[in-house]
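Quick one, tokens below. Sequence please?
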């Protein structure tokens, strides 16, 4: 399983702390202090998760906007926005509009891991549902095709049965006539 996490935060101390904590739990951590660096790195590294600071101190780009750009380059990446209490409104809006989860600072590493694991299970369930739905559609097409084939065979068998019935009726009439002739 890919357990790579991209962390983007302009606070180097926080970046190092989160990176160390996740590395200790077996995650492969890729760090970036600037959005442009993150966008470059995601092109070269297969990342499963991204933990992005909402306030990146870049006037033209916040964490949600960076998340949208990252998702454009890596559609299956599971994204979480970390934010302070003063940006909670924006984080909730991002969650509703873009399905990005969020963490409120300060947080513990185990909270991040739990949130990513939950998101991964949800993602896997959605993918499994899509796969099952595709299988159902294929099976429905196959059933329709088989019904069509069965209808064609049934109509052909009905003709054979009708011919056989007529022969049987005419044979039974012939037998009746024969019996009458024998009794005379």
């Amino acid at each position: 399983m890919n357990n790579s996490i991209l962390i983007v935060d302009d606070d180097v101390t926080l970046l190092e702390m989160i990176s160390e904590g996740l590395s200790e739990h077996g995650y492969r951590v890729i760090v970036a202090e600037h959005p442009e660096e993150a966008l470059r790195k995601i092109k070269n590294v297969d990342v499963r998760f991204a933990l992005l600071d909402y306030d990146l101190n870049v006037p033209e780009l916040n964490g949600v906007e960076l998340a949208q750009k990252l998702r454009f380059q890596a559609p299956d990446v599971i994204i979480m926005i970390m934010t302070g209490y003063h940006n909670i409104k924006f984080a909730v809006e991002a969650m509703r509009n873009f399905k990005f989860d969020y963490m409120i600072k300060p947080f513990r590493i185990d909270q991040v891991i739990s949130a990513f694991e939950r998101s991964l299970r949800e993602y896997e369930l959605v993918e499994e549902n899509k796969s099952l739905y595709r299988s159902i559609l294929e099976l429905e097409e196959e059933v329709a095709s088989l019904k069509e084939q069965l209808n064609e065979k049934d109509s052909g068998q009905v003709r054979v049965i009708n011919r056989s019935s007529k022969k049987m009726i005419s044979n039974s009439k012939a037998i009746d006539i024969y019996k009458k002739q024998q009794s005379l």
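The longest strand covers residues 78-83. The two ends are 93 Å apart (CA to CA).
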